[in-house]
Amino acid sequence: MISMMQVSTPALLLSTATLLLAFNDFTSEAYTPINPSKTSTKSPSSPGKTSLALSNFDYTTQSRIPWIAEGYNNWKWGDHNINYVEMGDKTKPALLLIHGFGASAYHYRYNIPVLARDYHVYAFDMLGFGQSSKPLLDYEPNVWRDQTLDFIEEVIGKTTTVVGNSLGGFTALYAASSSAAKTKSLINGCILLNAAGRFKDPTNAVAETEKNGIVEALVGAIKRFVIHLSFMYTKQPARIEQVLRQVYPVN
């Protein structure tokens, strides 16, 4: 089993002691890359080094990493470029922060410097997000699961605690639960920050019973009506502004 936490994002700033998690045995499907022929290679100048963009950044006194349009560090994952931030003492426990849907590593711009005072912190842009490559492919959970495990193995190079928010929480949990033999040496804990996602195995879906045609048609009509009303509500400018202000608050 794996011990984990479900907390809100501000909890990351309360106490770094909360990040110490126990890790025992995993029981889940084996970790196998979605593309067996892919090869992952490190960028010669990036892993294990602070990017030039952050070379003058003092995480002991500064509270927010700057936005760098060209990215921070680059990891070559197969044919894809993965942007990531690295900060902190390499002799300290490793921590990997995984962002949610529509976000990037910069989502953790305030958390990274604080956590780097006690941990060796990494945060990457998931494939298809931020400043990482955005190839045309089927973005399914296995893609980000494989990215996470390969990143820990090839870039971090030591046992890591994974922290995920929203979709990143699902990715962190999926990576941590995939293959005991593979992940036990890679992941020693999993922290979920308002996690979201598909928490059931699609391969174990129970066959549905045959539905009555009239009932099915009625349910379909109701669903379409509700979806239409929902769309009409969510597309209102005031509602869009409200949602954006929740995600990107302004003073």
From TrEMBL:
InterPro entries: AB_hydrolase_1, AB_hydrolase_fold. Coiled coil: none annotated. Residues 1-22 form the signal peptide. Keywords: Signal. Pfam families: Abhydrolase_1. It comes from the Eukaryota. Residues 93-212 form the AB hydrolase-1 domain. This is AB hydrolase-1 domain-containing protein. It comes from Helicotheca tamesis.
